[in-house]
Amino acid sequence: YASEAAPKKSGAASFKPDYDAVRKAVEDLLESNEDYDDGSYGPVLVRLAWHTSGTFDKNTNTGGSNGATMRFLPESNWGANAGLAVARDLLEPVKQKYPWISYSDLWTLAGATAIEAMGGPHIPWRPGRSDYAPQNFVALPDGRLPDGDKDAKHVRDIFYRMGFNDQEIVALCGAHTLGRCHDDRSGFVGPWTNAPTTFSNLYFVELTENKWHKKKWKGPLQYEDKSGQLMMLNTDMWLLWDKKFKPYVQQYAKDEEAFFKDFAAAFSKLLELGVPFPEGSAAASPTPNK
Ligand code: ZEM
């Protein structure tokens, strides 16, 4: 009877949060609506994880995914966050089913799960974020997330503030291999690649091998290829034009394995910015600072 003799604990003492069940619930949502965009909610979930984390300021130790402050005004209404209600609403039934997970853990875990489910690398992720009560935080100033029509200096200002180096910036921007721009969200239009629901290094291949010219239209400055089907933001082009960014673009275009490794480390770091993990809890992803 030895195997049956394991004591059954009751109540909170035996409660063990099942993060794999949450991952599974997110996976089940990804292709639940074939009419949505290119048939996957994966890209918009990745964007939610990025925008909830990318507000971090290392100098004031404010912002970041902890708190899930994008639930509230004014952050929910920032221009940069247009369209992300789609992702937040999509995850709401998962939050209802697994109420023990914080929104901030859920949004970051959903992004990590989506990357992996779309064929990307494993993203080291650990729980530990808590949600701020609406009356219990100081609203962040708008302007912490990057603008697509700006230059390399702007990109560095934004990402250095979070604590990233040039190599990490280029790796992170490789997420634009996923998804598309929507004219009713950002004002830009189109996907960066012809495989926007598969995580790959195609963004870097397109950036280096395709020919890009300014799109002639009344909308905001963006670039398009000859087919007019694919696009690049001005900030994407600057990764190619900037002497220090360019070598990483070229490396990742040639070496998908290197991109996957560097992306996983940088994305994991992004999701952890400003999160007060308990002392002694292992770093999910030590990234050497170059
Ligand atoms: Zn994005 N991004 N991004 N990005 N992004 C868009 C879409 C997506 C910038 C940006 O302005 C825009 C990173 C970096 C930067 C994703 C992930 C990551 C869109 C289109 C814009 C305008 C939004 C729309 O209209 O729906 C700029 C300027 C960036 C840095 C310079 C980083 C870092 C990311 C993750 C690691 C993803 C997945 C999308 C596609 C979303 C979707 O709904 O398809």
Description:
The chain has helices at residues 19-30, 42-53, 84-97, 103-117, 152-162, 166-173, 202-209, 234-241, 246-254, 256-272; strands at residues 180-181, 190-191, 213-214, 223-224, 231-232. It is mainly α and 290 residues long. It folds into two domains: 19-144 and 267-272, Peroxidase, domain 1 (Orthogonal Bundle); 152-265, Peroxidase, domain 2 (Orthogonal Bundle), CATH 1.10.420.10. A three-stranded antiparallel sheet has the order 3-4-5. A two-stranded antiparallel ribbon has the order 1-2. Strand 4 and strand 5 form a beta hairpin. Helix 2 packs across helix 4. The chain is globular, with a radius of gyration of 20 Å. The protein starts with 18 loop residues before the first helix and ends in an 18-residue tail after the last helix.
Short description:
By secondary structure, this protein is mostly helical. The chain is built from ten helices and five strands. The protein folds into two domains: 19-144 and 267-272, Peroxidase, domain 1 (Orthogonal Bundle), CATH 1.10.520.10; 152-265, Peroxidase, domain 2 (Orthogonal Bundle), CATH 1.10.420.
Shape: globular
Number of helices: 10
Main CATH class of the largest domain: Mainly Alpha
Q: Could you describe the largest sheet, including whether it forms a barrel?
A: 3 strands, antiparallel
CATH architecture of the largest domain: Orthogonal Bundle
Strand order of the largest sheet: 3-4-5
Q: First CA to last CA: what distance? A: 57 Å
**Derived structural class:** mainly alpha
Question: Approximately how much helix is present in the residues?
Answer: 25-40%
Q: Which kinds of small molecule does this entry bind, naming each only once?
A: 20-OXO-protoporphyrin IX containing ZN(II)
* CA radius of gyration: 20 Å
Described by its quaternary structure, the protein is single chain
- Strand fraction equals under 5%
Task: Give the beta-strand count.
Answer: 5
CATH fold descriptor of the largest domain: Peroxidase, domain 1
- Report low-confidence residues grouped into runs of 5 or more: 1-5, 285-290
**What letter string, H or E per element, gives the SSE order?**
HHHHHHEEHEEEHHH
